[in-house]
Amino acid sequence: MNVLIIGSGGREHALAWKLAQSPRVKKIYCAPGNAGTAEVAENIAIGVMDFPALVNFAKEKSIALTVVGPDDPLAAGVADAFQAAGLPVFGPTASAARFEASKSYAKDFMQRHGIPTARYAVFTESAAARAFCEVSKFPLVVKADGLALGKGVVIANTLAEALEAVTQAMDKGAFGEAGRRVVIEEFLQGPECSIHAVVDASGYCLFPDARDHKRAHDNDEGPNTGGMGTVSPSGVLDDALWRRIREEVLDRFVAGLRKDGIAFQGMLFPGLMITADGPKVLEFNCRFGDPETQVLLPRLSSDLLDILEAAAENRVAAVSPTWRDESAACVVLASGGYPAKYETGKPIEGLPRPDVFHAGTRRENERVVTSGGRVLGVFALGKNLDEARANAYDAVTAVSFDKMHYRRDIGA
Fold it and tell me: Closest by alpha carbon to 376, among 334, 328, 329?
């Protein structure tokens, strides 16, 4: 069968890499893809938001399944467009994608259905948000309500920082329309981790846990990024916590969908804080994580196509994938200056490599050059996390480009 992947990042390269291993996949197309996806698929020059062109292409090429990577097209209704055309698609409709596209919508759902999360308040007027900050305990967290490329969250340690975060989001439009409404919530303490579960009307299929590293610099310092590296497993969950996550988060989420009459077909990717009171949901995402996918799929020994196809047909609860016992680590190689101003067009030395997922790359005059902030994800497996980390960092030494930046403490 022919498969179409929508997106151009490291997540999409990992999806294409894994789907290419399926004996049932005839050909993979990526729209628009990157220099890495071109190694395992055919890149198509169609933007992720050009829904009519994507639908027409899927019809022309007899695409049996389309897999949507990024959050923006899901929030804008790409899955709706494919469903309306009678084309199988993996990813929630725009209505269901509101769990990620609106933090206030997700928080209200969690409160309604007893899913543990931080106490919060929602504001559409900056004066009211500032007044709330002035009577709050610190630290607290100020979040843009909408999609902000993973950067719309500020942990404010002081009143001045909270007021500035409100001003930037609501008055100065730092995150555009995404920040016109803000969620202000209590600061939760504990180790973070994330889980992935493919959800449909039949229930869910649970993936292993992972842990992302959002800050740009070592020791969790610097600004938030889209993710500087990941490990799987996270190392913070035991059997008792897994049971609570199933019962208090996933089971209640699925029950809430049914009670509210919400149809959800796709990936649910909750970010969790493991507090002294147990797991609490920081946020919901409605697609594969990036760079979490880059450590989850190397651990998957089953056929990914079987899982995605089952979800598109509302029978994912009957799927039981198998996973390798090994741990996985992924180190993101970023452009110097990311997530702020950075230069592109830097030639990359040391490619191609089988242990590298491309993110911000393009081919230029027979060379692969940088084209984004997060450029590559170098991944490795190991019998435990220490070995996976060591293997990944050993592989990092084989790749280089001008002003390359990466964290040296991923998984430490």
Answer: 334
Distance in angstroms (rounded) separating the CA atoms of residues 308 and 296: 15
CA 4 to each of CA 25, 60, 204: distance values in angstroms, whole numbers, following the listed order: 11, 12, 23
**Sorting pLDDT into bands at 50, 70 and 90, what band is 323?**
very high
Q: Domain 192-318 carries which CATH code? A: 3.30.470.20
pLDDT in tens, 83-130: 999 999 999 999 999 999 999 999 999 999 999 999 999 999 999 999
Q: Is the pLDDT of residue 150 over 90?
A: no
Task: For domain 125-180, give its CATH number from 3.40.50.12370, 3.30.1490.20, 3.90.180.10, 3.90.79.10.
Answer: 3.30.1490.20
**How many Å apart are CA 184 and CA 58, to the nearest integer?**
42
> For residue 72, what are its two tokens?
């923006």
Q: Report phi then psi at 86, rounded to 5.
A: 75, 25
H helices present in 117-249, as ranges: 126-134, 159-166, 239-244
* Residue 284, SS3 per DSSP: strand
Q: Does domain 2-93 have CATH number 3.40.50.20?
A: yes
- Contact (Cβ atoms closer than 8 angstroms) between residue 286 and residue 266: yes
Contact 257, 200 (CB under 8 A): no
**Which tens digits make up the pLDDT trace of 22-66?**
999 999 999 999 999 999 999 999 999 999 999 999 999 999 999
pLDDT tens, 326-372? 999 999 999 999 999 999 999 999 999 999 999 999 999 989 999 99
What is the dihedral sign for C-alpha 356, 90, 181, 51?
positive
Q: Write out the two tokens for 54.
A: 């994507």
Domain 327-405 carries which CATH code?
3.90.600.10
